[in-house]
Amino acid sequence: xxxxxxxxxxxxxxxxxxxxxxxxxxxxxxxxxxxxxxxxxxxxxxxxxxxxxxxx
Length: 56
Description:
By secondary structure, the protein is mainly alpha-helical. The chain is built from 4 helices and no strands. The protein has helices spanning about 1-20, 25, 30-40, 50. The mean pLDDT is about 80.
């Protein structure tokens, strides 16, 4: 479980560095920042009638 968390964090850091973030920006992120980013970017699943109610 801890190994998975470390691997996920390592992947997160590498991904952000590839996408233009600087190390000082990534290193200043707090746990709250990471949690907020994960909820913003998490994959959402819903039915089409809830996503586009004006179509039905």
